[in-house]
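User: Structure please.
Assistant: Input sequence and predicted structure:
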Amino acid sequence: MGVVSVPKKVGQSVGNSVGRGVSKAGTAVKNTAGKALERASTLSGPSPNTATNLAIADIALRGGTFLARRAMEHALLGKRYTPETAAQILRGRSFSQAMLHTAIARVALGSGPGAALVIGGLAAKTLYERSRARKEKLRGEKQIRAMAEDGEDETDLVPKIGG
């Protein structure tokens, strides 16, 4: 093991070297951010019209989100139900249920307090239902059966995922 020399003014030399390291890191971050900003300003989409590019991005994101949500719903229901029953359950949801879930998601995404409120409410609901597990399980099964019955006659406008 080699001999390590200790400078006479430990705090000064150590502080300076740390300070220079932080300074270099800060400069690197600024340079990287500057390069990213330059590239973003020259980035162009498929169309020369910015509004068209924004519309394309919006449609692509919404479509991707829809497909991801649909796949997750099928996966959650697929563990317990057949694919046909799962599809009927998803088709059997009412418009008001879908709008309520959308509104709750917007509240959660809109602000920190909104997210805390939604997360707290969902946690409270889950804990309440767990305390009454048997009754809630029967109630949930009844709701799912009703949704499946409502969805039997509906047509599925979206192609089936994974099936």
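The mean pLDDT is 79.
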